[in-house]
Amino acid sequence: MSTTSIEDDALVLKSYIKSYPDFPLPGILFRDIFNVFQNTDGLKLLNNILKKYATEIAGTVDCVAMLEARGFLLGTLMALHLNVPCVPVRKKGKLPGKVAQLEYSLEYAKDVLEVQLDVLKEGKKVLVIDDLLATGGTLDASIQLLRKTGAEVVQAVVIMELVDLEARKKIDIPIKSFIQY
Ligand SMILES: O=P(O)(O)OC[C@H]1O[C@H](OP(=O)(O)OP(=O)(O)O)[C@H](O)[C@@H]1O
Ligand SMILES: Nc1ncnc2[nH]cnc12
């Protein structure tokens, strides 16, 4: 593993994030993490950041919960580095077996999130991970869902945070972000 700091690595990682004005709607500046995955150097850098962070928090987490869809890519890497299992949080109707459900409000509609109950049990310490924190609505709903299983959600990790949207005001657990806009 390289000896550079996570902060220095994150500065370089930022240069791999491509930004698209007016996508998917006018006025939205879309921050696309997939460009990182399209460059092997970018992917290695991202993986190294997660590996270094996993070393910092080793022993504090029993399970990684990864948010659909881009969070799946990050959750798998993080779980491998932490040597713990990972579980997906998905929109309703996509996960078989016993699930916990939570209905949550979007700007104009309602939706339902689900998580399978096999791994998540009373007292499990869960880290929740996604690519980006915007309004915090997705993260907030996911935390409430995970708590319904009895798990303790100990922290959230996102690669990018849109700071002006002030999501931290509505989230009651520590959030680690590597890149801020
Ligand atoms: O903080 P919020 O305002 O809730 O926004 C953040 C969420 O938005 C994006 O997902 P998106 O809804 O585009 O879904 P996808 O990952 O399935 O494409 C992103 O990956 C986060 O999950
Ligand atoms: N600006 C943005 N870029 C990428 N994903 C997002 N999800 C919500 N806002 C986003």
TrEMBL record:
Belongs to the purine/pyrimidine phosphoribosyltransferase family. One of its GO terms (biological process) is adenine salvage. This is Adenine phosphoribosyltransferase. It comes from Aphis glycines. Pfam families: Pribosyltran (PF00156). Pathway: Purine metabolism; AMP biosynthesis via salvage pathway; AMP from adenine: step 1/1. GO terms for cellular component: cytoplasm. Homodimer. InterPro entries: Ade_phspho_trans (IPR005764), PRTase-like (IPR029057), PRTase_dom (IPR000836), UPRTase/APRTase (IPR050054).
